[in-house]
Write a structure and sequence with these properties.
Layout lengths: L1 H8 L13 H22 L2 H14 L7 H17 L4 H52 L6 H15 L4 H13 L9 H4 L7 H7 L2 H9 L3 H5 L2 H7 L20 H15 L11 H10 L7 H13 L5 H14 L1
């Protein structure tokens, strides 16, 4: 699970002065500009051009570049400027001012980068803990041993087929992995009950989305990705009869709508303590019958399209199901 999370984070930058992804190219361009500015200055002998472009660009190029060749080159350029020209008080003042500024900026960059790395380490530790807790949910019930990963996989396929961005697809996948984390607080007598739940037991079970939200709500990265909302609202319904808030239609986050379809499909097509798994055709018929009420139309039809593409149901069956849905409504 952590592997998928890290692939999701790859390339992201949260530090405002960190340029890890394009740093070398960025500062190399700055260095080239500095060399060009110095060359133009020699041709036209303009102290103003040197002051505005030459010194600052070369010094800026030394802020983050770790490549020793570029650092040495920057030092040589500065040294050559001082040796080949007669420095006056203005030039020396400008150089001293820029040097002090660069020391301050470099310090800010170092602190910012350190905080960025510490933040990632803390979040990785929290996520490892959260995912470990999520795995204990599946371990508590042999009937749902692979439920979280199945839901995540179905949801990812649906999101991809719907044309969502890679960021959204990864976020929905991660939400699928931990969507039932709130069940960690549910009694084993309910989770492993050999039979249907009573009204009181079902009322207790319905608390798991809110409980899951409470567990992860303080992890900022999960908030930024919208995962906390997906976990909280994955049992909401378009007709407003879902839980915990009774949201309707577009008020339900798209990721939660996708998870709702994926969750129901996997629940119907896997063995449970109170029943054997349903045939895929039966599950699809149930989803089709409840499009627009229990299930989001776009997400549900996308899943059915995926099942057709994978050869799990035939187009003729899809056509028949669609006709049945139209007549029923």
């Amino acid at each position: 699970m952590i592997k998928e999370w890290k692939s999701c984070k790859k390339g992201d930058e949260f530090c405002p002065v960190s340029f890890k992804k394009y740093g070398f190219l960025f500062w190399t361009i700055f260095m080239i500009c500095g060399i060009a500015a110095i060359a133009v200055n020699y041709l036209f002998d303009s102290p103003l051009l040197l002051g505005l472009y030459g010194y600052p660009v070369v010094l800026l190029s030394l802020i983050r570049v770790r490549n020793s060749v570029l650092v040495v080159l920057g030092g040589i350029l500065l040294g050559s400027l001082l040796l080949t020209r007669t420095p006056d008080a203005v030039h020396l003042t400008v150089i001293a001012a820029y040097a002090i500024l660069m020391v301050i900026v470099r310090r800010v960059v170092w602190i910012s980068s350190r905080n960025y790395n510490e933040k990632n380490e803390q979040e990785d530790l929290l996520l490892n803990t959260v995912f470990s807790l999520a795995k204990t949910i599946d371990a508590k019930d042999p009937y749902t041993a692979y439920h979280s990963s199945n839901v995540a996989s179905y949801a990812k396929k649906i999101a991809k087929e719907m044309g969502l961005s890679n960021r959204e697809i990864d976020s929905i996948y991660l939400a699928g992995l931990i969507h039932d984390i709130g069940k960690i607080g549910m009694p084993d007598s309910i989770l492993q009950k050999d039979g249907r739940l009573t009204e009181d037991e079902y009322a207790t079970m319905k608390k798991h989305p809110e409980e899951g939200y409470k567990i992860i709500k303080d992890i900022q990265r999960l908030q930024e990705l919208g995962i906390t909302d997906m976990v909280q609202y994955h049992h909401e319904r378009p007709d407003g009869k879902g839980y915990p808030r009774g949201l309707t239609g577009a008020d339900i986050p798209v990721g939660a709508r996708i998870l709702g379809v994926a969750d129901a499909y996997d629940a119907m097509t896997t063995n449970r303590s109170y029943r054997q798994k349903l045939a895929i055709e039966t599950a699809v018929n149930e989803i089709t019958r409840n499009i627009g009420t229990q299930f989001d139309p776009i997400a549900a039809n996308t899943l059915i399209g995926i099942l057709i593409a994978e050869g799990k149901i035939q187009k003729e069956e899809k056509s028949m199901l669609s006709t049945t849905f139209s007549v029923a409504n």
